[in-house]
């Protein structure tokens, strides 16, 4: 049964959903079907950014995606922005979210490989409403990484020093503080204590940021986590996941190999969000432990990339 929405979840205050897609029509169809099954779908504006082709090999699948986009129904409104050139995922997300937040106070962001619970939109709008004035919370997500939450932790949500790129949301004033050029990079390179604070959300963060700045990868997500860090802010996570990534089958931009490491069971149901939620040191220790880099990757980063 759908949860009863509070006054803050009235249709005129619901955040729009921005969805980014490229060349995976089958994944996209699953994403749309699960999103359309949400209790609040018919009251939610859907804005879709369809990236342009990177090469001739992608043309057929990109066209299949756009043919499918023309058939979507079930939302309050649907707008499709079809790029004539390939922007890449990073460029698409930064531009698309920025453009959307020029007209809205908050936004919910999905990519074309996310399955959601029927109460996903309710959960996201609830979080955006409850924590709108908490300047130390930069983003919220519906994804619960399989972290070993300590026994006795009393809440349905927790705070962590990392932003999630899977089924997430933010506010215009927070997004405006993002530093996409990573101005503090040199300090992170030379100040060990500063870097130690940065990797409290996982020791994989520094190699990712360094690779981003070296041009080895192109990631908006690591720069968004970095922006959260330099603004002394945190990300909100649920204890039980309301989203599952189906792009870890080797088809995605960031997952060119198949993995089940990030799998999470979907869990529909009410979530209580305390307004005065504070970070829990035991939870953060387990969170960082989950994102610990294996020794062989540390050695590879040092030998291959000098990190």
Describe what is shown at a glance.
This protein is an alpha/beta fold. The chain is 35% helix and 15% strand. The chain is globular and about 50 Å long.
- Total E-strand runs: 10
CATH architecture: Alpha-Beta Complex
Query: Which strand order spans the largest sheet, edge to edge or round the barrel?
Result: 3-2-1-4-8-6-9-7
Oligomer description: single chain
CATH superfamily: Spore Coat Polysaccharide Biosynthesis Protein SpsA, Chain A
The secondary-structure class comes to alpha/beta
**Number of helical runs?**
11
Q: What characterizes the major β-sheet?
A: 8 strands, mixed
Domain Glycosyltransferase 2-like: 17-128
Protein name: Glycosyltransferase
InterPro entries: Glyco_trans_2-like (IPR001173), Nucleotide-diphossugar_trans (IPR029044)
Present the secondary structure layout:
Blueprint: E1 17-21, H1 25-36, E2 45-50, H2 59-69, E3 77-82, H3 88-101, E4 106-111, E5 114-116, H4 120-130, E6 137-141, E7 157-160, E8 168-171, H5 172-175, H6 185-190, H7 192-198, H8 205-214, H9 220-230, E9 234-238, E10 243-245, H10 281-290, H11 295-305
Parallel strand pairs: 1-2, 1-4, 2-3, 6-9
Antiparallel strand pairs: 4-8, 5-10, 6-8, 7-9
């Amino acid at each position: 049964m759908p949860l009863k929405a509070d006054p803050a979840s009235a249709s005129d205050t619901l955040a729009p959903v921005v969805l980014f897609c490229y060349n995976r029509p089958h994944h996209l169809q699953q994403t749309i079907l699960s999103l359309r099954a949400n209790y609040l779908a018919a009251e939610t504006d859907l804005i879709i950014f369809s990236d342009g082709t990177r090469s001739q090999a992608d043309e057929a699948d990109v066209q299949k995606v756009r043919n499918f986009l023309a058939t979507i129904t079930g939302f309050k409104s649907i707008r499709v922005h079809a790029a004539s050139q390939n922007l890449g995922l990073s460029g698409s997300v930064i531009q698309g979210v920025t453009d959307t937040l020029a007209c809205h106070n908050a936004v919910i962001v999905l990519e074309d490989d996310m399955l959601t619970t029927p109460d996903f939109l309710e959960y996201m709008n609830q979080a955006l409403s409850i924590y709108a004035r908490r300047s130390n919370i930069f983003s919220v997500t519906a994804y619960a990484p399989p972290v070993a939450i300590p026994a006795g932790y009393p809440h349905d949500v927790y705070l962590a020093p990392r932003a999630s790129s899977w089924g997430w949301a933010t506010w215009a004033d927070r997004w405006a503080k993002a530093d996409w050029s990573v101005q503090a990079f040199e300090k992170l390179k030379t100040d060990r204590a500063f870097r130690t604070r940065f990797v409290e959300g996982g020791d994989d963060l520094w190699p990712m940021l360094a690779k981003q700045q070296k041009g080895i990868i192109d990631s908006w997500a690591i720069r968004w986590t970095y922006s959260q860090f330099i603004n002394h802010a945190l990300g909100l996570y649920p204890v039980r996941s309301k989203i599952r990534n189906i792009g870890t089958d080797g088809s995605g931009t960031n997952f060119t190999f198949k993995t089940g490491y990030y799998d999470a069971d979907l869990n529909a149901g009410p979530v209580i969000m305390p307004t005065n939620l504070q970070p829990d040191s035991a939870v953060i220790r387990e969170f960082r432990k989950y994102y610990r880099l294996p020794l062989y990757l540390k050695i590879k980063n040092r030998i291959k990339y000098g990190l």
